[in-house]
């Protein structure tokens, strides 16, 4: 009886030991991780994509390990012709370890690569006021207010120069003014905006305009 009781006790003790689960990566906004960057390899614009006029944005989901290296990387969206180029480059990126309570932790974030080139302005490109283009907006993703900027009480206006093609797609963005982290948040959102084509004499034309986004504590 003594041996049987000891055996049963050992089994119960074994079952009661809890499993130690790995800590899930902490979700961190892309703008914050951009500030942690150590090395960045620039993507190579695929020649066949440029010849075909393929431009656009590749958005990737990344897990960055405690040491600052990319552990996993998957494409969330973007033109097929540009995806391999973005993945090949970003897999080589490194970051400073992200610290939580003084300890490095793995990070869950997104990385966005924009592909565009500064083409000579076509004769039919015209300047259009921001108010007129706002009236032609189809989809406007609202920029996220970065947690780091909220914590730092960072406010202000971000002003961008935008080129919108004949189909109503944003094909070029340049930062004119505004805080750096807030500007990145705005650009990440505006790259996804779409418009109805701007028409002259019934024909769509390429447009240059300004986009202004204001951040305040009331948002």
TrEMBL record:
<keyword id="KW-0813">Transport</keyword>
<dbReference type="InterPro" id="IPR051045">
    <property type="entry name" value="TonB-dependent_transducer"/>
</dbReference>
<feature type="domain" description="TonB C-terminal">
    <location>
        <begin position="30"/>
        <end position="124"/>
    </location>
</feature>
<dbReference type="InterPro" id="IPR006260">
    <property type="entry name" value="TonB/TolA_C"/>
</dbReference>
<protein>
    <submittedName>
        <fullName>TonB family protein</fullName>
    </submittedName>
</protein>
<dbReference type="Pfam" id="PF03544">
    <property type="entry name" value="TonB_C"/>
</dbReference>
<keyword id="KW-1003">Cell membrane</keyword>
<dbReference type="InterPro" id="IPR037682">
    <property type="entry name" value="TonB_C"/>
</dbReference>
<dbReference type="GO" id="GO:0015031">
    <property type="term" value="P:protein transport"/>
</dbReference>
<keyword id="KW-1133">Transmembrane helix</keyword>
<keyword id="KW-0732">Signal</keyword>
<keyword id="KW-0653">Protein transport</keyword>
<feature type="signal peptide">
    <location>
        <begin position="1"/>
        <end position="22"/>
    </location>
</feature>
<keyword id="KW-0997">Cell inner membrane</keyword>
<dbReference type="GO" id="GO:0055085">
    <property type="term" value="P:transmembrane transport"/>
</dbReference>
<dbReference type="GO" id="GO:0005886">
    <property type="term" value="C:plasma membrane"/>
</dbReference>
<feature type="domain" description="TonB C-terminal">
    <location>
        <begin position="130"/>
        <end position="219"/>
    </location>
</feature>
<keyword id="KW-0812">Transmembrane</keyword>
<comment type="similarity">
    <text>Belongs to the TonB family.</text>
</comment>
<keyword id="KW-0472">Membrane</keyword>
């Amino acid at each position: 009886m003594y041996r049987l009781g000891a055996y049963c006790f050992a089994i119960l003790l074994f079952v009661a030991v809890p499993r130690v689960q790995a800590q899930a990566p902490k979700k961190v906004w892309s703008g914050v991780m951009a500030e942690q960057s150590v090395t960045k390899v620039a993507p190579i614009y695929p020649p066949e994509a440029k010849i075909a006029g393929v431009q656009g944005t590749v958005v990737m989901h990344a897990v960055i390990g405690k040491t600052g290296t990319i552990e996993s990387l998957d494409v969330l969206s973007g033109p097929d012709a540009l995806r391999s180029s973005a993945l090949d480059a970003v897999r080589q990126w490194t970051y400073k370890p992200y610290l939580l309570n003084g300890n490095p932790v793995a990070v869950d974030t997104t990385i966005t690569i924009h592909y565009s080139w500064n083409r000579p302005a076509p004769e039919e490109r015209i300047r259009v006021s921001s108010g007129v283009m706002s009236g032609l907006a189809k989809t406007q993703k609202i920029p996220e207010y970065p947690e780091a900027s909220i914590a730092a009480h960072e406010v202000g206006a971000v002003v961008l120069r935008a080129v919108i093609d004949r189909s109503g797609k944003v094909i070029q963005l340049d930062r004119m003014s505004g805080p750096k982290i807030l500007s990145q948040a705005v650009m990440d959102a505006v790259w996804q905006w779409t418009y109805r084509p701007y028409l002259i004499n019934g024909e769509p034309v390429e447009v240059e305009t300004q986009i202004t986004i204001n951040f305040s504590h009331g948002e």
